[in-house]
């Protein structure tokens, strides 16, 4: 098969169906861009789970003097405000009670490391985190609790820790940082699902456009293909120009999708989100460059397969 003939047939097909070819290119680009976005979202969620999974702790706050009867509820940093503290009726937690909690947790085999924080340390940390808070002048170390921060070998076992020490005398509250991050992960997972759904819809539309484009192209060249079959041309020889047209549209669409992904990464993530949201460490350019070849391969595979299956009916003699 002469390459010159195939290239000329590709050029003829693209010129005859220019409008539909442009529609296919745009649809492929949008579909592949959604594929890339979904893959990058998946990488972002995976990286965040790994990053925060190593840092998530369970915080156990002990009662202080103000917690007897109607004491104080913990605010960020361990400070206290008016609320009911049912486990603190006997007053501040004793050293024996705090040691008992620590020993019980050690026996579970779930603890990787302990961190203790005194009321004075909690006050200093609170001042560092929110130096402009108007409550700072009125706060003292007595406004904070002793706390025990526990790093678990498996953060998913938080319920075991909570059930073991949550109701013990001297223990005011057990907090899991996973609960703070859960809404964020739910939001990212929801966005990922939406991206996959949109990608599926766009892929379906793209396949329909490729099928219709190949049909129109095959019909417009029905006489040429008929002559080729009469002179003994193989099915592969007849199919190749049509499949190549679809593959060409896929390559152009993949290039546009890659450009869209790169521009989106730079403008949305690097220039905006990374400046506004300091809590999250966003993915770098490595995953973006890894996704681009996958988009190209996916576009080529889908377009070529759709063209091949569509052409089968036109090659029956």
UniProtKB/TrEMBL annotation:
InterPro entries: ABC3_permease_C, FtsX, FtsX_actino, FtsX_ECD
Name of the molecule in the record: Cell division protein FtsX
Record-annotated membrane-spanning stretches: 21-41, 193-214, 246-268, 288-311
Lineage start: Bacteria, Bacillati, Actinomycetota, Actinomycetes, Kitasatosporales
Topological category with respect to the lipid bilayer: Multi-pass membrane protein
Family classification: Belongs to the ABC-4 integral membrane protein family. FtsX subfamily.
Keyword Transmembrane helix: yes
Cellular localisation: Cell membrane
Its biological purpose: Part of the ABC transporter FtsEX involved in cellular division.
The keyword Ubl conjugation is annotated on this UniProt entry: no
Pfam families named in the record: FtsX, FtsX_ECD
Keywords: Cell cycle, Cell division, Cell membrane, Membrane, Transmembrane, Transmembrane helix
Ranges where the ABC3 transporter permease C-terminal domain occurs: 196-313
Domain FtsX extracellular: 56-174
Assembly and binders: Forms a membrane-associated complex with FtsE.
């Amino acid at each position: 098969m002469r390459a010159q003939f195939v290239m000329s047939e590709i050029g003829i097909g693209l010129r005859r169906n220019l409008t539909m070819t442009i529609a296919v290119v745009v649809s492929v680009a949008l579909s592949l861009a959604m594929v890339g976005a979904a893959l990058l979202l998946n990488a972002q969620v995976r990286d965040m789970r790994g990053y925060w999974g190593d840092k998530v702790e369970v915080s156990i706050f002990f009662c202080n003097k103000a917690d007897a009867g109607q004491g104080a509820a913990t605010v960020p940093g361990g400070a206290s405000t008016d609320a009911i503290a049912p486990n603190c009726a006997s007053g501040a937690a004793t050293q024996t009670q705090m040691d008992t909690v620590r020993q019980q947790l050690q026996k579970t085999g779930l603890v990787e490391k302990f961190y203790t924080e005194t009321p004075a340390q909690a006050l200093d940390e609170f001042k560092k985190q929110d130096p402009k808070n108007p409550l700072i002048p009125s706060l003292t170390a007595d406004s904070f609790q002793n706390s025990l921060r526990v790093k678990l070998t498996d953060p998913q076992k938080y319920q075991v820790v909570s059930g073991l020490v949550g109701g013990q005398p001297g223990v005011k509250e057990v907090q899991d940082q996973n609960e703070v991050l859960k809404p964020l992960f739910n939001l990212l997972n929801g966005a990922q699902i939406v991206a996959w759904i949109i990608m599926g819809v766009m892929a379906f539309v793209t396949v329909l456009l490729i099928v219709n484009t190949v049909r129109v192209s095959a019909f417009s060249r029905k006489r040429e293909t008929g002559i080729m079959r009469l002179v003994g041309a193989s099915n592969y020889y007849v199919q190749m120009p049509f499949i190549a047209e679809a593959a060409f549209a896929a390559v152009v669409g993949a290039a546009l999708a890659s450009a869209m992904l790169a521009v989106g990464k730079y403008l949305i993530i690097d220039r905006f989100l990374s400046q506004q949201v300091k809590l999250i460490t966003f993915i770098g350019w490595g995953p973006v460059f890894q996704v681009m070849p996958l988009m190209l391969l996916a576009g080529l595979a889908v377009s070529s397969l759709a063209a091949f299956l569509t052409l089968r009916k036109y090659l029956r003699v």
